[in-house]
Amino acid sequence: MLSSRSVENYHPPRNPVRLDETDLTILRELARDARLANNVLASRAGVAPSTCLGRVRALQAAGVIRGYHADVDPQALGLQVRAIISVVLRPEMRDRMLPAARQLRRRPEVTDVFVLGGTVDLHVHVLCPTVEALRDFMAAHLGANPVFASTQTALVFEQIRDDDD
Predict the structure, then answer these.
(1) From residue 99, how far is each of 113, 125, 126, 144 by CA, in Å?
(2) What pTM was computed for the model?
(3) How far is 57 from 123, CA to CA, in rounded Å?
(4) What tens digit of pLDDT does each residue of 120-150 get?
(5) Checking CA distances to 132, which of 23, 37, 78, 98 falls within 20 to 30 Å?
(6) For the purposes of burial, counting CB atoms within 10 Å of the CB of 3, is it exposed (0-12), middle (13-18) or buried (19 or more)?
(7) Nearest to 131 by CA among 98, 160, 109, 102
(8) Is 64 exposed, middle or buried (0-12, 13-18, 19+ CB in 10 A)?
(9) DSSP 102
(10) Are strands 148-155 and 81-89 parallel, antiparallel or unpaired?
(11) What is the pLDDT, as a whole number, of residue 115?
């Protein structure tokens, strides 16, 4: 997810969408609060509301703004156990990495799957109600999958976010 700090450290890509300081301000403010009213966003960006709305729509059309989401507290849903699982694939199964990663992402316990370069092939972020549920998920969807050679699980005790400052 894009944070307001990510927008502040913006470096143009090779085939950039032309972003000026106003666009960056809009992105930074929306990253902080995606529900910000357009007139407030326009005021913070120093432009007219109609200009702001046009820029937001252009950023959406260009794929810079990919969507909006609600940040839901997992504990409020009874999901007490958060883990990051490092997964190494069997060398002969590397051609099945992306399908296996996509299959994992479809699981309700999985919040994110990152395909990596290096020793570890995947990082899988999961939320479960209990340690037993995490164990069952790992046995059924990682241990039983012949694509995966090994896993290493790290329990997340706390996540530090921009709004925790």
Answers:
(1) 12, 17, 18, 16
(2) 0.76
(3) 33
(4) 999 999 999 999 999 999 999 999 999 999 9
(5) 98
(6) middle
(7) 109
(8) middle
(9) H
(10) antiparallel
(11) 97
- Find the distance separating the first CA and the last CA of the chain, reported in whole Å: 18
Q: Which of 127, 126, 112, 123 minimizes the C-alpha distance to 152?
A: 123
Domains of the chain, each with CATH number or no CATH:
4-61 (1.10.10.10), 74-158 (3.30.70.920)
For residue 76 the two structure tokens come to: 């409020």
Length of the chain: 165
Neighbours of 148 (CB within 10 A): 22
Half-sphere exposure of 59 (CA within 13 A, CB side): 21
